[in-house]
Structure formats: structure tokens, C-alpha cells
């Protein structure tokens, strides 16, 4: 029995690393709510929001080319020089545009140093994370992807409500140095080749637009809340998402993270569909238990949760978990035209959702959650249609 337990633990070490770091992340958010003044808690939630955006979009989608055209050879990863150049220029363009947009349009925090730190940390972590996961070093990839969450927990403990911004600066700076060091180590394992990849411009633009759409999907509600509601209400909304939905978003990311390595080798439609069903049913049960638990603890947690949030939130959780599987297959095998069509439909649904809900959402976060659920449902239906026509393969 002990041998079986040991084997199970070794096989799922990466999951336990992710679970531990996520637990510390949620504890950090809870402590921030309990110890920080309103202005500092707003700053904290802006930090979480721009970090989420950066981790999703810091390479403008060019990391998908890194996954698609790279090849594992032993312990090395061979990747064309053109892909590395595309990633470098994409990051520079992103950091410049993101810093201006964040500090002048989106949030009420004028802090270019913060956005620069978050951008550099995100890029180094995302690059190393993708390298480690395609080489099947799953535990190491999760450590790299989540170490900053552990650092934030320590920062909140040290700050204890005082000198919050200064301590967060120091923490992010140290994390950035660790990220850059990890990047330098990984580059020694890369074999940059002169292999011709053909014209990847169309595919890159498709991935870039696809990730931009994903950023919109994950953040348009936050922008709406930030613009229409007060700082305190924005912070409460992010706090609600962090405790209610974020745990399942992390699980969804892990599902997609494991699935990419599997789909690199083979795709069997019947097995894939069973996995989709299993993930959807399991997470719906777990979410229901989690929701009821938070409702019981809402006074202690100071959590603005209502029973009216259940339907839109469980819809978001189930759809995002299934989307993680579809997205893994789509990222590897989807055509540029399929990606463009799915993105266009999603953008239309986001714009329609904003236009319809904007006049009605004041004081009504439930409507915002329903808008998010509707947009995610639209996207998953489009993906499901295209995945149906994906032929099976085994490499």
C-alpha cells in the first residue's frame, strides 16, 4: 500500500505543488482583505488583475508557436530561431503597450515600475513554464509557474497591513530576479536551429488575436466593475472571484497543462470525450460543495456572496474546465481559419454582452456574472463544433 501511495504521490507531485501554492495564494488574499486599508486592498487587487493579464498575454500568443514548432530531442528542446525572435519582439511590444494602457486607461494606479516588474516576471516565468511542461518536467514547471504566489503570501504576512506597497515592490523585484535566473538556466537546454518553419505570420496573428480574446473573456467584467463601481466594490468583486471561481480556474489550467503533453502524442476522440464528461461532472459537484461552504463562512470571510451567484458561477466553472481541454487540442491542431472564426464570434458576443449589460449593472454584480457565463458558453459551443471535425491521430 505504501508503494502505491508513493507512486501516486510521485505521479501527481506537480498537482500537489499547484494545490499548495494556490492555497497560500488564497490565504494571502484573505489576509489582505483582513489587514489592509481600502486603498492598499484596491492596489492589491489591481496587482492580481494585471498579473493575470500578463501571464496570459505577455508574448502576444507567440509562445504557441514555441509549443507547435519545437521538438523534444532527449533532454533538449529544438526550436527555430525565427520563433525565439518572434517571442522577443512580441514581449517588447506587449510591455510597451500594456504599461501605457494600464497606467492611463484601465486602472486608477499610476505606477509604471509595477507594470514593468509584473511584465518581466510574467514573461520569464511563462517561457520557463512552457519549456518545462513540453519536456514533461511537470513538477518543476508548476514550481516556476507558482512560486510568486508563495512569495506574495510571505509579503502579506510580513506587511501585516503596514508599508504594503514597499513590501510588494521588494517581493516582486526578488521574484523577477529568480525568474530571470530560471530563464538563463533554461536557455542552456534550448537548441536554437535554423529550421525553416514556413510563413507563420498568419498563424501567429491568429494565436495573438485568440489570446487577446481570451484576455477579454477573463477580464472584461473586471474592467466594467472598475469603471462603473467604486474602488471598494471593485475590490470586493475581485475578492469574490478569488475565493469562489479562481480555485477552479487554476484546476482548469492544470487540466490543460497536462493535456498538451498527451495531445502532442495522440488524439483518440472517444477517450477525449469521456475526459470532457468526467471533468465537467466532477467539477460541478465539487463547486456546489465549495459554494455552500463559502456561504456558511461568508461573515467570517467578509465575502459578498449571494445564492443568486450560483447559476452563473457554476456555468463559468464547468465551461472553463471543458474549454481547457478543447483549447489544448485547438492550440496544437486548429487551423488559422478556425481560430479566426471562433475569435470573431467571441468578440461579437463580448461586445454584445457589454452593450446590453452596461446600462443595467450598477449595483448588480449578478448581471455581470451572467454576462461572463453567456460569453463563455458562446465560445465553448464554437470550439465544440470545430473539435467534432478533428481527425484522430497517433504519433
TrEMBL record:
Keywords: Membrane, Transmembrane, Transmembrane helix
Listed transmembrane segments: 7-30, 42-62, 83-106, 112-132, 144-161, 167-187, 199-217, 237-257, 277-301, 307-329, 341-361, 367-386
The keyword Chloroplast is assigned to this record: no
Highest taxon of source: Bacteria
Name of the protein in question: Polysaccharide biosynthesis protein
Organism in which the protein naturally occurs: Catenovulum agarivorans DS-2
Amino acid at each position: 500500500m505504501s508503494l502505491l501511495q508513493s507512486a501516486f504521490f510521485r505521479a501527481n507531485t506537480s498537482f500537489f505543488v499547484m494545490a499548495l501554492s494556490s492555497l497560500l495564494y488564497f490565504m494571502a488574499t484573505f489576509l489582505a482583505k483582513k489587514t489592509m486599508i481600502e486603498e492598499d486592498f484596491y492596489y492589491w487587487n489591481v496587482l492580481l488583475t494585471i498579473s493575470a493579464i500578463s501571464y496570459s498575454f505577455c508574448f502576444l500568443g507567440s509562445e504557441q508557436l514555441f509549443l507547435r514548432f519545437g521538438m523534444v530531442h532527449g533532454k533538449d528542446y529544438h526550436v527555430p530561431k525565427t520563433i525565439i525572435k518572434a517571442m522577443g519582439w512580441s514581449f517588447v511590444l506587449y510591455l510597451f503597450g500594456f504599461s501605457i494602457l494600464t497606467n492611463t486607461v484601465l486602472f486608477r494606479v499610476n505606477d509604471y515600475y509595477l507594470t514593468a516588474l509584473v511584465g518581466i516576471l510574467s514573461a520569464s516565468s511563462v517561457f520557463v513554464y512552457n519549456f518545462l511542461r513540453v519536456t514533461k518536467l511537470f513538477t518543476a514547471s508548476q514550481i516556476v509557474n507558482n512560486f510568486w504566489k508563495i512569495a506574495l503570501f510571505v509579503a502579506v504576512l510580513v506587511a501585516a497591513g503596514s508599508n504594503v506597497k514597499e513590501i510588494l515592490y521588494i517581493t516582486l523585484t526578488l521574484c523577477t530576479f529568480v525568474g530571470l535566473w530560471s530563464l538563463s538556466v533554461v536557455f542552456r537546454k534550448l537548441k536554437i536551429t535554423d529550421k525553416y518553419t514556413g510563413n507563420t505570420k498568419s498563424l501567429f496573428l491568429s494565436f495573438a488575436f485568440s489570446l487577446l480574446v481570451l484576455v477579454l473573456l477573463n477580464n472584461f467584467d473586471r474592467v466594467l466593475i472598475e469603471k462603473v463601481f467604486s474602488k471598494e466594490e471593485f475590490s470586493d468583486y475581485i475578492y469574490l472571484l478569488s475565493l469562489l471561481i479562481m480555485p477552479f480556474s487554476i484546476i482548469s489550467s492544470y487540466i490543460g497543462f497536462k493535456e498538451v503533453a498527451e495531445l502532442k502524442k495522440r488524439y483518440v476522440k472517444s477517450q477525449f470525450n469521456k475526459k470532457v464528461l468526467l471533468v465537467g461532472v466532477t467539477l460541478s459537484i465539487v463547486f456546489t460543495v465549495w459554494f455552500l461552504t463559502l456561504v456558511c463562512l461568508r461573515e467570517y470571510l467578509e465575502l459578498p456572496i449571494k445564492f443568486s451567484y450560483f447559476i452563473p458561477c457554476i456555468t463559468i466553472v464547468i465551461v472553463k474546465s471543458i474549454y481547457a481541454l478543447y483549447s489544448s487540442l485547438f492550440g496544437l491542431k486548429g487551423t488559422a481559419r478556425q481560430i479566426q472564426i471562433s475569435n470573431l464570434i467571441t468578440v461579437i458576443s463580448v461586445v454584445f454582452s457589454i452593450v446590453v449589460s452596461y446600462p443595467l449593472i450598477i449595483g448588480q454584480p449578478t448581471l455581470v456574472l451572467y454576462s461572463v457565463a453567456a460569453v463563455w458558453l458562446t465560445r465553448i459551443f464554437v470550439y465544440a463544433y470545430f473539435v467534432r471535425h478533428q481527425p484522430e491521430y497517433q504519433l
